[in-house]
Write a structure and sequence with these properties.
- The protein is an alpha/beta fold.
- The protein has a single domain (about 5-219), classed as 2-Layer Sandwich (Nucleotidyltransferase, domain 5), CATH 3.30.420.10.
- About 50% of the residues lie in helices and about 20% in strands.
- It has helices at about 55-60, 65-70, 75-85, 95-110, 120-130, 135-145, 155-175, 185-190, 200-219, and strands spanning about 5-15, 25-35, 40-45, 90, 120, 180.
- Strands 1, 2, 3, 4, 5 and 6 form a six-stranded mixed β-sheet that branches.
- α5 runs parallel beside α7 (about 155-175).
- The protein is elongated and about 65 Å long.
Length: about 220
């Protein structure tokens, strides 16, 4: 079974809305570190950002005002989260959304992000599993045979399923490209390639890897 050659951190935020630039804030975070072929470490917390939780967010997520009022403040959670991520590759489902909140929340505290690259598991799934009827996390997991444990629209449950999507992708790439270890940088590159060009891209990548392995053996 193929695994990742370097760690990847899967991130999921629950928030009060869609735009940190318009004042929306994080209410919950889950960051799961994938090492090799499994989740080995977690950072999970509700977050008190000192804002009102809209009723529709409570209906969607189950996160109430009382829950965040009793949670650790953002001034503690965000630095701990950034330290947890460190310099590993970062991933999220619809990653631009989560990275945007991470950068804005860090910026509020004078902290910058240090992750080595960004992988969107949504884009990745569209490229590796074309033709599926839906790439929403709950639907995608069912189509890939991944069991959705916990409650949808809670950070840890969503992050765990998204992490399983990445592990599924590692196995898929292992079979496709003949890899025992998958470089996280490959996922970053796949995100940037047009979907129609993915088969050619992977064929070329697999050929390059075979040539390198042959050279290492003969050298």
């Amino acid at each position: 079974m193929s695994v990742y050659e370097r760690p990847i951190v899967m991130l999921d935020f629950e928030t009060t809305g869609l735009s940190p630039e318009m004042g929306d804030r994080i209410t919950e975070v889950a960051a799961l570190r994938i090492v090799g072929g499994e989740i080995v470490e977690r950072y999970v917390s509700l977050v008190n950002c000192g804002v009102r939780i809209p009723s529709f967010i409570t209906q969607l997520t189950g996160i109430t005002q009382a829950m965040v009022d009793g949670a650790p403040p953002a001034s503690r959670v965000v630095p701990e989260l950034l330290d947890f991520i460190g310099g590993d590759v970062l991933s999220a489902h619809n990653a631009s959304f989560d990275e945007k909140f991470l950068r804005v929340e860090g910026g509020r505290l004078g902290r910058s992000c240090g992750h080595a690259g960004l992988v969107c598991s949504l884009k990745l799934a569209r490229r590796l599993y074309p033709g599926l009827p839906s790439y929403k996390l709950g639907n995608l997991s069912g189509q890939l045979g991944i069991v959705f444990r916990g409650t949808a629209h809670r950070a840890e449950a969503d992050a765990e399923v998204a992490a399983e999507v990445l592990l599924h992708a590692a196995r898929h790439l292992g079979r496709t490209c003949g890899l025992e270890q998958v470089a996280p940088d490959l996922l970053v590159s796949i995100n940037k390639v047009a979907a129609a060009k993915i088969p050619v891209f992977l064929d070329k990548y697999a050929s390059t890897m075979r040539e390198r392995r042959a050279a290492a053996v003969t050298g």
